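Hi V.,

You were right to ask for the full record rather than a summary. Here it is.
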Amino acid sequence: MSSHELEHALKMLEQITANFAWDEDAERAAAAVAAHIKRFWTPDMRRMVVQALAGGEVELSPRAARSVRLLA
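Predicted structure:
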């Protein structure tokens, strides 16, 4: 996937994470974001974001990063 696709996926990830910001329990919110991504994103999209975070290619908010780690 291209860098543009990664950039778009990361933007969506942060938007989804922001939608769960009402939940003060960071672990529960991260799990909800991960569940949403598992349900609606393609395996390629998930893999791209997981690999980018693991490779140190991207910087995410703490909750978004936790959500991605739950996908791995």
